[in-house]
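We examine the record.

___
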Amino acid sequence: MKNKLMFLIFFYYVFCTIAEETNIYSMPLIRRKSPLQMLIKDPHYMKKINIQKVHPMNENITLFKYMDSEYYAEILVGKPGQKFTVIFDTTWSDMWIPSKLCSKDIYPICGKKHLYDQDISSSHKFIDPTPFNVDGLVGNLTCDTIVLGHLNVTDLIFAEITGISNLMKYQLMHADGIIGLGYNTNARTTNNTFFYKLLDDKKILNPIFSVYMNRDTTTPKGGTIFLGGIEPKHIKGEITYVPVTQKNYWQIEMNQFSVQINKTSTKTFCDQGCQVILDTSSNKIGVPPEYVTAINSLVKATLYFYNRYKVPCSLVNKLPKITINIGSRDFHISGRHYIQKMENEQNGTICITAFSDSELSDGVWSLGGGFLSSVYTTFDLENNRVGFANLK
C-alpha cells in the first residue's frame, strides 16, 4: 500500500511538471444531451436556441373578389405589419402601394385606401432617393418587409405612390395596390421583384405560380394563387402548355376566337392566329378595336358607357358560347364567365360584357378573368411557358 501511494505521488509530480513546461492542461468533459434528444424532449427546442433554416415551400394564397372584376389578397407591410389589399397582376412587374404622403385633397382616391407609413416601420430600410413615374402613378422607391400568408419577404424594393393622375384607370380599383408577377424585363423598381426574390431567397420550391379564379357568387372568396407549384385538386384532365412568345409579358399565341351563333354556325375572329397577353388584374377580354362592336353584337350586348357593353342580366345563362383555341385545344366559356355583374346605385345590378378595346398595339388581344375564370392557369417561369387545364 505504501509503495502504491509513493508511485501515485511520483506520477502526479512528473505529470504536473511536464504539463507546466509544455502548456498542456487537462479540462473536464461534461456530457450533454444531443440536439436530437433535446428535440424529442421539447418540440420547441430549435426555436429556443434560435436556429433558423430556410425550407423552400409552396404557398397557397386566398384570393377575395370584388364584383367579379378584381381578385385580390391581403398582405402586411413593415413591422409592425400595415395591412393592404393587393391585386396579383401578370401585366405588371413591380409592386406598388399608396403612401401616407398622397394628399387626399389633391387625390381623393387616396382617402379610400390604406396608406403606407415608413416612419412607423422598424424593418424599413432607406435607399437612395429614386423617383417612380409609370402609367399615371408618381412616387418614390422604398424598401421594407412584406408578409404574405406564411411567406416573409425581407428587403423588397417597391414603389410608394404619392400621386395618382390616371383616375380613369384607378378610380374604380377596389384594392390598395398591385404586386406584379410579370417578367422583370419590364420592372422599374428592381430586377429582384417579388416573385424573383421569393426564388432567390429560396422561399418557394419551383419557379411556377398558378391561378384559380372562382365565380361562385355565394362566397366572397375568389379562388387562390399557388406560389411554387400546381394544385391538382382544381384540374380536370391534362394541362396544355404553350410557349411564351414575348418575355416582356406573359404573352402567348391564340389560334382562334369564335362565337357560336346557333347550333350549326359560328363567327370566327383571329382565324390566322394572334398574340394575347394574360391579365390576372381585370375581368376584361381585350380585343382589337375593329372587333369590339361585332363581338358584343353577337352576344346581344348594347353600348353602356365608354367602350363597355351590357346585356340584360336575365339572359346571362342563355348567351352564346365562346370558344378560344390555344395550343390546338378548344376552351369553352359561357356567359357566366364573360359577364361581369356590377352594382349600380341607380339601376341596381348591371351585367357588363368582358369584351372591350384591348388598348394594345399590333392587334394584340388580352385575356383576363372573363377567360381565366373558366380554366386553371399555371405560369412556368423556368420553362417560359403557360399551361391551361379545364376546371373540375
User: Anything to note?
Assistant: The two ends are 91 Å apart (CA to CA). The chain has two domains: 26-49+68-205, 231-391. The helical segments are 2-22, 35-41, 45-48, 167-170, 194-200, 289-298, 335-338, 369-372. The domain at 26-49+68-205 is CATH 2.40.70.10 (Cathepsin D, subunit A; domain 1).
